[in-house]
Amino acid sequence: MRSLIPKTLISSHVLGVDRTGLLEKVKYSQNRNGFYRETSMGIQRSLSGAYGQSYYMGDHGLHCHSQYNVNGSYNQKSTAANFQISNRCYSGMVDSQHEADEGKGLLEELNALCKDKKLEEAVEVLGLLELKKVTVEMPGYLLLMKACGESQALKEAKAVHNHLTMSGHHHDVHICNKILEMYSKCGSMEDAYNVFDKMPKRNLTSWDTMITGFAKNGHGEDAIKMFTEFKKVRLKPDNQMFHGVFAACSVVGDMKEGLLQLESMMKTYKLIPSMDDYVCVVDMLGSSGYLNEALELIEKMPMKPSAEIWEIMMNQSRVHGDLELEDRCAEIVNLLDPSRLDKQPEKDFIPIKPSRPFSFKTETFLFRAGDTSPPDHEKLYSQLRCLKQHMVEVGYVAQTRLVLHDVDHESREEDLLSHSRMLALSEALLTSPARAPIRIINNHRICADCHDAFKIISKLVGRSIVARDERRFHHFESGVCSCKDYW
Questions:
Q1: Can you give the residue ranges of the DYW domain (predicted)?
Q2: Contact indicator for 458, 465 with CB cutoff of 8 Å
C-alpha cells in the first residue's frame, strides 16, 4: 500500500480571504432567522425607477427608512407613497415569517433524516437550506458528520464537509477533529490527512485520531510515521494514543517495536498501563501468531486478566489453528463471563449497509451463513462456485480446519463458500457497477478463509474490496490486503 503521508514535513497554514472591491460597505448580523445584510456608513443603493428607498432587514422582515430620487434629493412623502411603503413593509414581514417557518421545517427534517441514516436525502435538504440562506447550527452538522461516519458514507461525508466549509462557521480544532474522525470511519485517510495538514491548530485528539485512523485502515507505516512526527511537537501522549500505536505495530507485524513502545509508555512517559492497554498489547501479539508471548505477558500483568483478554486469546488461537489453547481459553471465559460465549454463534451474521457502489438506497440487508432467503440466492451461490474454480487455479486452498462441524471435506468447503461475507460479496458483484469499489461492513472479525478469498477475488475481478470488521478496515486490491495478513 502506498504511503498517504507525503515525504515532506507536515505543514500548517491558515488560508485568508480578501474581501475588497465591494461597491458598498456592508456589515452582517445574525439573528434567529439566519444571516441578514444591513447597509452601513450611510451608503445606499437606489431601487429601479425615479424613487428609491433605503432599507434594512430586521427580525420581523423588511423595514423602510427613507425616500430619495436618483439624483439624491429628498422628496415629500405623500399619503399614497407612505401607503405604498407601508404595504411593502407588511409584505416583507409576511414573507419573512413564511420563510422562517419553512426553514424551521427543513431543519427538523434534516435532524430526522440523520437519525434514520438517510444521508443522501439529508444532504439534499442541506443544499435546500443553503439555497434559502437558512443557517444550520453546528450541532446539526455534528449530528450529520456522526451519521456519515457510522454509515461509512464517503460521498455524503465529502458533501457535508463542503457545505460546512462554505457555511461560514469558524473551523476550530474541535470541529476539525470531528471531520478527521468522520473521514477515518469512512475509510478515507487521504481525505483525513488533507484536512489535518491544513489545520492551523492541532491538539492531542487531532494526532490520536490520525494515528488510530491510519492503523484501523491498514496503513501501519503511516501510523508509526505520524507518531514519530507527533513526538517532535513535544506533546505528551496519553494511554489512548498508544492503543493506536499498538494497532499499527500489529498491522506491520513488528512485535518487537510494539513491546518497545509498551516499555517507553511506562518508563519514558510515566504512564501506568490499564487493563485496556494490556488488551491492546495481547491482541497485537496474538494477531501475529505470537501466542506464547501473549500468554507470558498475561502471566506478568499486575492485575487479574479480564474475560475480554481471554476471549481475545481464544479467538486468536482459533485463527492460528491452536485448537487446544482455544479450548483452554474458552473454559476460562466461561468461568469469568459465560455471556461472551453465547455471542459466538452470531459471528456469521453480517449486516450490509447500502453504500454508493451498491444499487440499494434505504434498506439494510442482513446475510447469514448458508442463507437462502434472498430472492436471488441461487445466483449468489452459482456465482461463488464459478469464482471458486478460478480461485483454485491461482492457488486458493480452502481452510477447512475452520469448520467445526463433523462433516466430510466437500461439505466443509461448501460451508466456507456460503459464509455470510461471501454472500455479501457475491451480491455486490451482481448489483454494483463494473470496476466500482465494493464496501462491506462486518459486525465481527473476518475469518482467515474469507480473508484469503477476498484477496484472490479482488485480483480476479479487478476491483477494490473494502471490508470493515470489528477491528479495522481491510482494503483488498490486486491480490493483497492492507493488513498484510496481520489482523
A1: 395-487
A2: yes
Q: Is 9 helix (H, G, I), strand (E, B) or coil?
A: coil
467 neighbors 446 (Cβ within 8 angstroms): yes
CA distances from 289 to 278, 318, 472 (A): 17, 11, 18
Are the beta carbons of 487 and 471 closer than 8 angstroms? yes
Q: What is the pLDDT along the chain (487 residues), one digit of tens a residue?
A: 567 776 654 444 333 333 333 333 333 334 434 433 333 333 333 333 333 443 333 444 434 343 434 344 444 444 444 444 445 444 455 455 556 666 677 788 888 888 888 889 988 988 888 888 888 888 888 999 999 999 888 999 999 999 888 876 667 899 999 999 999 999 899 999 999 999 989 999 999 999 999 998 888 899 999 999 999 998 899 999 999 999 999 888 888 999 999 999 999 999 999 999 999 999 999 887 889 999 999 999 999 999 999 999 998 887 677 888 989 999 999 999 988 887 654 443 334 333 334 333 333 445 555 555 655 667 787 778 878 888 888 888 877 665 555 555 566 677 777 787 888 888 888 777 777 888 887 767 788 888 888 999 998 888 889 888 777 788 898 898 888 776 6
Cβ atoms of 113 and 144 within 8 Å: the answer is no
Q: Are strands 465-468 and 473-477 parallel, antiparallel or unpaired?
A: antiparallel
Query: Over the Cα atoms of the chain, what is R_g?
Result: 30
Q: How many residues does the chain have?
A: 487
Residues paired with 67 in a beta bridge: 53
CA distances 136 to 123, 139, 162, 467, Å, are 12, 8, 14, 33
Element (H, E) at 365: strand 365-368
User: Is-contact 479 453, C-beta < 8 A?
Assistant: no
Asked whether the beta carbons of 471 and 246 are under 8 A apart, the reply is: no
Helices 291-300 and 275-287, interaxial angle, to 10°? 160
Mapped onto helix, strand or coil, the DSSP state of residue 351 is strand
Cell of 117: 441514516
Tell me which H or E stretch contains 322: none
Q: Residue 487: which residues within 8 A CB-CB, separation 6 or more? A: 250, 251, 287, 445, 446, 451, 469, 471, 472, 474
Quick one: CA dihedral 301, 306, 312, 313, positive or negative? positive
Q: Which three cell numbers stand for residue 217?
A: 485502515
Write out the DSSP string of 367-423: EETT---STTHHHHHHHHHHHHHHHHHTT----GGG--S---HHHHHHHHHT-HHHH
| 186 touches 152 (CB < 8 A) | yes
